[in-house]
Design goal:
Oligomer: single chain
Strand order of the largest sheet: 4-11-10-9-8-7-6-5
Radius of gyration: 20 Å
Low-confidence stretches: none
Largest sheet: 8 strands, parallel
Mean pLDDT: 98
Strand content: 5-15%
Number of strands: 12
Shape: globular
Helix content: 40-55%
Number of helices: 16
């Protein structure tokens, strides 16, 4: 890219010389409220909502807010490099776009727009199994940019095998297996609107376009869409899966495999013992278990358990550059950001997602420099203190 991520602020100020101001707020915590005003209650609730009364989403924020950065002075930070090694690849910054399904409810350009934004900034895009755009089409939109595929592990092993071979053929380099959603949680914002996009065939593009899925239908999807939806609902996830089942993934995927939704150190150890390459410490952004541990509170224990054996990534609650700094200090190699980029997409398409990526990384770059760090590698637990919020 050349230069520093922080240079984005001068670009904004220079554009201001001709009267231009950013189309979206640079305080990304304001995006949710803007999205609430501009989009319908169904889509907004689906993205912004959480499990139960929202206690886990609040715990995610509290776990990050309680940790405070202790800046250090008179360290040479004039040249900075935010690049990190993740799963054998060099990324320009410790950030990836988290897998979010059904993005067409936010913007008609959906996953392709978000993927192009990620590609433009060199940030990995993780495509959800439940995307509203087939995985091949998203791959095409990205060219040869870094992309990972997220698997909701279906009951039908032939569909699982087909998804993995399609993702490999379309150039997805890593597999992210979400473990925390063997069934959908109790989500009042969706329930109160009786809003579940899948029942309308939205978020089913990878399934409906899949030969193994089609083999299980009596009629083609377009002739009996309701039957296709019910077939999807019946196989979407499988609460019967256990640790030995991971062998199936290893047999059918030859790249890195990362397990998403790990919160307990023993589960992280089990992932390492099963030959996985990484874990994502995550509670699904508070969308699965109400009353759950905040993700940042779970992170240190997981890092302590497997940090020397696995790549530990983090998501759930990240909203700002300083949140990323804190996750790195707690031992994460990189973070995934979710809702903020979905809001950016809803408000301004691809440009909105790029805005979110650039704001996050400019703020991270400045937070590192102003705290005495020239890159993520020198950040550790000693750079944080815990305070009562």
């Amino acid at each position: 890219m050349g230069g520093h991520w922080a240079d984005f602020q001068y670009e904004i100020y220079l554009n201001g010389m001709s009267g231009a101001v950013p189309r979206l707020p640079t305080d990304l915590t304001r995006l949710e409220e803007l999205t609430e005003r501009r989009l319908g209650p169904g889509p907004v609730g689906y993205v912004a909502g959480s499990a139960g009364a929202g206690s886990t989403a609040r715990a995610n924020r509290a776990a990050l807010d309680r940790r405070r950065i202790v800046p250090r002075m008179l360290r040479d930070v004039h040249e900075r490099d935010l690049s990190v090694e993740v799963l054998g690849r060099t990324l320009p910054a410790p950030l990836a776009l988290a897998p979010i399904g059904v993005l067409s409810i936010m913007h008609p350009d959906a996953e392709s727009a978000a993927a192009r934004a990620a590609a433009a900034r060199g940030v990995p895009f993780i495509l959800s199994s439940a995307s509203s755009t087939p995985l091949e089409q998203v791959a095409e939109a990205m060219g040869d940019a870094e992309r990972w595929f997220q698997l909701y592990w279906p009951k039908d092993p032939e569909v699982a095998r087909s998804f993995l071979s399609r993702a490999k053929a379309a150039g997805y380099s890593a597999l992210v297996v979400t473990l925390d959603t063997p069934m959908l949680a109790w989500r009042p914002r969706d329930l109160d609107q009786a809003y579940l996009p899948f029942l309308h065939g939205v978020g089913t593009a990878n399934y409906f376009s899949d030969p193994a899925f089609q083999d299980g239908l009596a009629k083609p999807v377009h002739e009996d869409p309701n039957a296709a939806v019910m077939h999807f609902v019946g196989m979407f996830s499988d609460p019967a899966k256990t640790w030995p089942d991971l062998a199936f993934l290893r047999e059918n995927w030859d790249g890195p495999i990362v397990l998403k939704g790990i919160l307990h150190p023993d589960d992280a150890r089990a992932a390492a013992d099963a030959g996985m390459d990484g874990v994502i410490v995550s509670n699904h952004g508070g969308r699965q278990v109400a009353g759950s541990i905040g993700a940042a509170d779970a992170l240190p224990g997981v890092v302590e358990a497997v940090g020397d054996r696995l790549t530990v990534l983090f998501d759930s609650g990240v909203r700002t550059g300083d949140d990323i700094f804190k996750a790195l200090a707690l031992g994460a190699r990189a973070v995934l950001v979710g809702r903020p980029y979905a809001y950016g997409l809803g408000l301004d398409g691809q440009a909105g997602v790029e805005h979110v990526i650039r704001c996050l990384l400019a703020e991270l770059d400045l937070t590192l420099a102003l705290s005495g760090h020239a890159g993520p590698g020198t950040v550790g637990p000693g750079d944080l203190v815990e305070s009562a919020v």
